[in-house]
Design goal:
about 425 residues; mainly alpha; Growth Hormone, Chain: A; 15 helices
C-alpha cells in the first residue's frame, strides 16, 4: 500500500507525468523498431542466422554508436534536454522512414545496418537525457520510487511495442512488406514522442541556464576536458562507480543469455523452417522478462528501504547466481522461460538501484556525461558477451559451460559488492549526494 501511495503521489506531479509520457512513447517506438530488426535479421525465412551472425548484428548496431556516447554526455550537459528529447525523436521518425525504404529495396546488409545504426545512435541521446532529467522533476526523497516507476514503465512500453510488432508479423504475409510496415509504425510513434516533449517547459529539464551552449561547435569544444572532469567527478563518488561496475557485469551475463535464448527459440525449440513459431517463443520470453521488470518495480523501493541500494544489488546478483544453473542447464522451454522471469526481476531490480545511486551521488552538471558513459559500458558489455556466446555455443546451442560461467560471474559480482561498505544505504530516504 505504501508503494501504491508513493506512485499516486508521483503521478500527481505534472512535470513527472509529462516526462513519463515522453519516455513511454519513445520506448514504445523502440520496442516496435527492435522487433522489426530482429524479425528482419534473425527470423526472415531467407536468412539462416548463426550465433556469430547475431553477435555481428549486435556489434554493428551497438558498438559504433557507443563511440558517440561520451559526446552525448557532454552535449546533454550543454544543451537543453527538453530540446534534445524533441528533436531526437523527430529525427528518428525520419530515419525510420529511410530504413523502411531500404528494406523494400532489398539493399545489401551493410547499407541496412548503417541505416538502422543511425536510428539507434540517436537513441543514446534520448535514454541518457531521460535519466539525467528525472531528478529535475522529482524531489530526492522520491527518487527510488521514480526510478522504479519510470524506467520500468518504459521497459514495459517497449515490450508492448514489441508485442504490437509481433502481431504485425504473425498476421501479415511473410516478407519484406511486413518488416517495412512495422518500421513505419515505429516512425509514427517516434513522431508522437517528439511532439509530446513540447508539453514540458523549455528549461525545465536542465542543465542550468549558465551551462547551456546552444552552438554545436561551441558545445563540442573542450569535450576531452569535459569527459575528464566527468570521470574525475565519478571517482569521487565511489558508491556510484561500484554500482555501475556491478550492473555492467550483470549486463554482460544478460547479453550472453539473450543470444543463447534467441538461438534456442530459432533452431532448438521449433522447426527452423517455421520462423513464426520461433518468433512466438521469443515473444513469450520477452513478455515474461517484462513481467519480471514489473515485479522489480513493485518490490525494489520496499527492498532498498530495508537493505539499502547496495544490499539490493548484492541480493539480485546472488539470486541470479543461485537460480541460473537449475533453471538453465536443462535447456528446456519451461525452466528457461521461468529463468527469463526471475532474471527480469533481478536485472531490473539491480538497475533501479544503480540508477538511483548514480542520480543521487552525481551532480546535475555532470549527470549527462556520467549516464552516457554508463550507457557506453553497458553496450560494450552486452556486445562482448554476445561475441563470447557466439564463440562457445555449439551447433545445438546447448552449452553447460557457458551457463556455469555466467552463474560464477553473478556470484563474483555479489561477492565483490559484499566486500564494500554499503555507503548508499538509505538513499531512498536521504537522497543526498556525498560531497
Amino acid at each position: 500500500m505504501g508503494l501504491l501511495r508513493d506512485l499516486r503521489d508521483l503521478l500527481r506531479l505534472p512535470d513527472f507525468r509529462r516526462l513519463l509520457g515522453v519516455r513511454l512513447l519513445s520506448q514504445l517506438s523502440d520496442g516496435v523498431f527492435q522487433v522489426a530488426l530482429a524479425a528482419y535479421v534473425v527470423f526472415s525465412p531467407e536468412k539462416q542466422a548463426s550465433p556469430g551472425a547475431v553477435a555481428s548484428a549486435m556489434a554493428v548496431l551497438l558498438l559504433p554508436y557507443s563511440l558517440i556516447g561520451p559526446f552525448t554526455g557532454v552535449l546533454l550537459d550543454r544543451w537543453r534536454r527538453r530540446q534534445v528529447l524533441l528533436y531526437c525523436n523527430l529525427l528518428r521518425a525520419v530515419l525510420c522512414c529511410g530504413t523502411a525504404g531500404l528494406i523494400l529495396l532489398r539493399v545489401p546488409d551493410w547499407l541496412f545496418y548503417l541505416s538502422a545504426l543511425s536510428v539507434t545512435a540517436v537513441n543514446r541521446f534520448v535514454l541518457a537525457g531521460l535519466s539525467a532529467a528525472l531528478p529535475r522533476v522529482v524531489d530526492p526523497d522520491r527518487l527510488v520510487t521514480a526510478n522504479a516507476l519510470s524506467p520500468t514503465a518504459g521497459t514495459l512500453a517497449a515490450t508492448v511495442g514489441g508485442g504490437v510488432a509481433f502481431v504485425v508479423h504473425l498476421f501479415a504475409a511473410e516478407g519484406d512488406g511486413a518488416n517495412a510496415a512495422t518500421v513505419l509504425l515505429g516512425s509514427v510513434l517516434y513522431l508522437c514522442a517528439g511532439l509530446s516533449a513540447l508539453s514540458l517547459g523549455r528549461d525545465l529539464l536542465g542543465p542550468e541556464p549558465d551551462q547551456v551552449r546552444p552552438q554545436f561547435t561551441a558545445a563540442l569544444t573542450g569535450t576531452a576536458q569535459g569527459l575528464t572532469a566527468g570521470l574525475r567527478h565519478l571517482r569521487r563518488r565511489p558508491a556510484a562507480a561500484r554500482a555501475m561496475t556491478a550492473m555492467t557485469a550483470m549486463r554482460f551475463c544478460f547479453g550472453a543469455l539473450t543470444v543463447m535464448l534467441l538461438m534456442l527459440c530459432r533452431y532448438a525449440w521449433s522447426d527452423p523452417s517455421d520462423t513464426d513459431a520461433g518468433l512466438r517463443l521469443l515473444g513469450v520470453a520477452v513478455g515474461l522478462s517484462a513481467a519480471g521488470f514489473f515485479v522489480a518495480a513493485l518490490v525494489t523501493p520496499w527492498a532498498t528501504a530495508r537493505v539499502g541500494t547496495s544490499g539490493w544489488i548484492i541480493a539480485c546478483s546472488a539470486a541470479s547466481a543461485l537460480l541460473l544453473p537449475p533453471l538453465a542447464l536443462s535447456f528446456s522451454v519451461a525452466p528457461l522461460m521461468l529463468a527469463a522471469f526471475a532474471l527480469g526481476i533481478a536485472t531490473q531490480g539491480a538497475k533501479i538501484a544503480t540508477d538511483t545511486v548514480v542520480q543521487a551521488q552525481v551532480d546535475d552538471a555532470y549527470r549527462g556525461r556520467v549516464f552516457s558513459l554508463y550507457d557506453v559500458v553497458f553496450n560494450v558489455a552486452f556486445v562482448g558477451a554476445a561475441a563470447i556466446a557466439a564463440l562457445v555455443l555449439p551447433a545445438d546451442v546447448r552449452s553447460a559451460g557457458l551457463v556455469v560461467a555466467l552463474a560464477l560471474v553473478y556470484a563474483a559480482t555479489a561477492a565483490a559488492m559484499l566486500r564494500e561498505r554499503d555507503v548508499s544505504r538509505g538513499t531512498s530516504r536521504a537522497g543526498t549526494p556525498t560531497r
